[in-house]
Amino acid sequence: MSQIESQVGMDDVAAIETLRDQMAKVKEELGRVIIGQDEVVEKLLICLLARGHALLVGVPGLAKTLLIQSLSDLLSLDFSRIQFTPDLMPSDITGTDILQETEGGHREFEFMKGPIFANIVLADEINRTPPKTQAALLQAMQEYQVNAGNHTFHLEKPFFVLATQNPIEQEGTYPLPEAQLDRFMFMIDVKYPSYDEEVRIAKETTGNKNVQLEPVLTGEEILKAQDVVRQVPVADHVYDHVVKLVRAARPGQPDSPSWVQEMVMWGPGPRALQYLVLGAKARAVLRGSMLVQIEDVNAVAEPVLTHRILTNFHAQSEGVTSADVISRLKEEALEV
Questions:
Q1: CATH number of the domain located at residue range(s) 33-218 in this protein
Q2: What are all long-range contacts of 153-157, with beta carbons under 8 Å and residues at least 24 apart?
Q3: Assessment of whether the complete model's pTM goes beyond 0.85
């Protein structure tokens, strides 16, 4: 038995197996409402187990909002949806003081909490509102608290922000600042369904069928599941792979290949290391494994690194995207 394997006790094995079965039940239930998008569902569950937030990018009509609402139903969590618009104010998200009259006839301010006070927050079309309002999410996503006036409120855990973004209509939108993009663990590319899946969509979603979802997990069970994920051991060679992968993506570093120097303007920071490890741990647990493999790291590399690698004009002129950079880095890392 290896040193890593010896770190996993019988209680840990049982907890991981239970968690795998619970997540399988969540996937099965979501399949009653969402046709296809299996990869998107898995990435969302990885984010949830790793205590991360996700940005879903896809054209309208791909069931992004329905998926998030259905997930909140299955997890028995408080859900709120914020439709981001150009006139949305920060107080519309966090809440504001309202002048109220007390029983004794006195007037005093009472803080009315905004939609940010939920377990799952859907930030719909987040790039349609100005940076001042986008920034209202920053503290909540990172510190799990909200400052409003003289008040500081701690958000109830689990707390999970899921934002959507339309990649087509960019006129009149406000691209997310790099600081806020970095708060999202995953950027998930929501693709079109396959031919067979669209046939099912046409048949199964145009009648009177009404699916009622029953909760599978409570908030307390989710918090325990997140603790289980943190306890999954990682071998030193996997940590080395994570560090080499991230450092190779940074131009100006001695660890990065010459083609990265030519193609990449900015690379990922240390937060990418943390999310790669946590994402790999969560993926291993979803597959019932007690150990993290390099395969788990590579599987979460694209959603973790895509929005943390900024290609330059030279790369863009040749049609090279950040996803292409990540794919090549993974190949070269495996060859070493």
A1: 3.40.50.300
A2: 153/111, 153/113, 153/117, 155/116, 155/117, 156/78, 156/117, 156/119, 156/219, 157/119, 157/219, 157/223
A3: yes
